[in-house]
User: Fold these one by one.
Assistant:
Number 1:
Amino acid sequence: MGTLAGRVAMVTGAAQGIGRAIAALLGASGARVALCDVVEPAAAQDALAEAGEGAAYFRCDVRSASEVEATVKAIVERMGGLAILVNNAGIAIDGLLLRAKDEDWQRVLEVNLTGAFHCTRAAAKHLLKARAQGRIVNISSVVGEAGSTGQVAYAASKAGLLGVTKTLAQELASRGVTVNAVCPGFIETRMTEEHVQGERRERLVASIPLGRIGSPRDVAEAVLFLCGDGAGYITGQCLRVNGGLYM
Ligand code: NAP
């Protein structure tokens, strides 16, 4: 029996990258995982298999409040409750301010910040029923704390998630539900593909005190810790998983 046995966990953006690693690790720790993503079910099959026997896939675009509501309802009906929410779905559309397009700003904010709001609002009443086992983990970023040239919308969305984390930590604390953020640095996924090639990679690695780019598993381990009973007295915090890149 794993440490999360009996708990149902909803992970958004779970078809690949960091979300996939989170789903796999929570599943290996005994949780039954509801993997949510915009991709067709066929494209999520590998992630679903890795998340263990009790896992299920739900196609859901977090930008749509109605789709999220319907998905949470389906998860609770099919899986018997909801104790853990990991708001991981996210996109980055980079570009310097003077060339930034309104639609790119809106899309990044809609997925990264409004999406997390939709999921948290829809899941909250079920998480409150889980009482002291209720957990929300928001995947923010080093960029939300430190800023990053060419990432104005992404930085705004990730800094916004930290405000959401602290506010809901206060709102939900009286029922024992904790709300925390994880702030990854550079993690090797599709999102960072173009930044981690050739000479750029060498420069990047040289700037990271621990001397390597992070893996999705590094982030998943932090999420697992925050979801477990051992983190029951930690709320409103940001756990940095960045190899020492930003302290
Ligand atoms: P990724 O490999 O691109 O995975 C993101 C997943 O989210 C994809 O499966 C994507 O589906 C899905 N998604 C996108 N829009 C969605 C929507 N509207 N509704 C539901 N799912 C949606 O990225 P990642 O690197 O694993 O990033 C995961 C999270 O970590 C993001 O929030 C990101 O900002 C954060 N983060 C990443 C890094 C890093 O270095 N990689 C660092 C700090 C923070 P599609 O394939 O269809 O787009």
Number 2:
Amino acid sequence: MLEIAAAKVVVCCPGRNFVTLKIETKDGLTGLGDATLNGRELAVASYLTDHVIPCLIGRDAHRIEDIWQFLYRGAYWRRGPVTMSAIAAVDVALWDIKGKAANLPLYQLLGGACREGAMVYGHANGRDVDETIANALRYKAQGYKAIRLQAGVPGLASTYGVSKDRYFYEPADADLPTENVWSSEKYLRSVPPLFEKAREALGWDVHLLHDIHHRLTPIEAGRLGKDLEPYRPFWLEDATPAENQANFRLIRQHTTTPLAVGEIFNSIWDCKQLIEEQLIDYIRATVVHAGGITHLRRIASFADLHNVRTGCHGATDLSPVTMAAALHFDLSVPNFGVQEYMRHTAETDAVFPHAYRFADGLMHPGEAPGLGVELDEALAATFPYQRAYLPVNRLEDGTLYNW
Ligand code: KDG
Ligand code: MG
């Protein structure tokens, strides 16, 4: 028995907010779990501190599945991003402890490596097509095998995915939500020329991806998918909101462009129909928002039965703890597709020293026992929480729309 003696939540803001759970066992092992939910951080911190930690003390840290079931079934109120991020933090911290107890990197406990490394995609963006392509060429020169392309839309003041910084994209940009203006018509005209010019400049030996960020109707997404077919995108992401999973049938009827969805999913039930009917090609659910490694493995196994591969979310609001957990997962699942990798700031990397590394377009979690990530608590304390919200979108006539 590895008795849980203490647990605490650390909230810090080394450039952006992170919520981290630290669990300690009686014999001095520690494990970390990420519980960051962008724009709603303190809700998860309270869920953990007030409702989860008291139930953990005295339990056996080795009993990961049993604790998962206890927190999921035992809450009575199942699913939802706050609950599932809190469960994820506990789950990942326990896997970290188990790895340290076994003196093995986590991927070894998950079945061992299925590949040499996880192919990651970087984010090339720019205010216009030329700037995006110039940035994509920089990623290609660094060895990236897959690059996401996002460009400003002519006629719109701002759009998702276009950042001020070349390498960091932080959408939670203000103390209260900023308001952006959106036009699907203008956007739909802008994407095919971006891909046409990108293929001319980057060639065909690199995967090109694009995130629609939930902004099209199914029929509009079908049309965009069809327009992009000549440029062979790796995937179109979050084409349309996915609460109604059957919506993806319409997109599928119109295009063979591969579809990815799921960064905001928190349970296998959010993607059951999408996977079962093979309405998508990549599932983007992540360790932190979908119940931890224990639940994400279940999703991946189910997806494997239906030829759906993984493509975990990896934006900057997912801390290095999640990045490490994702890489252990990526290395070990048979139906891995690709991993998103948005670099963190130097301040974040200093607060979370880590063993994972990038080389030749692939990432590896490293050989340190457990996750291979630490938390410098003294340094974290110098970066106090700062409220920050994601923006909202309005159509040109003022109607509130999806961001
Ligand atoms: O918190 C929201 C971000 O994680 C999201 O906007 C990033 O869509 C995203 C992506 O694909 O990385
Ligand atoms: Mg996305």
